[in-house]
Amino acid sequence: MTEAGVDISSARTTAGHRPRQDHSPSPRPALDAGPCDLVTVPVRQGLEAVDILRLRDGVGPVLHDGDCDTLGFLVPPGTAAGWDLPGSACTRAPARGRGSADGPPLTGGGWLVAPEAAFAAATDPAVLRAALGEAARTIEAVDRCR
């Protein structure tokens, strides 16, 4: 269980995905205390995207706001300059450490996926964009079936 009360530890598989057998984080570059950018999305789309990224071993650290209305994906610095995905925003996060020992880089929330539990130091922006698109299509399909 995470701070938000959402269990993200169980593994799912799809026909096109072969999960790693050990389910432990891959080696990744050390997290520095430098700045990062933050892509924020509505929580429902964000949770779907986290699942998609976890299946592909591509999720970096993810934050939730205090009310659990939005999720924030840490992405490499400079992403905000070219980010234009409707329904999301990308801003420069305050220059506070990304390691969970320092706490999240923003106040009023917490980690959904802490840096030490992530598969990458930051989520690749192109991979995140694709996952958010897939998540939006999944949500749209579910909503049509109701």
From TrEMBL:
Superkingdom of origin organism: Bacteria
Ranges where the record places region Disordered: 1-35
The protein, known as: Uncharacterized protein
Species this chain originates from: Streptomyces gamaensis
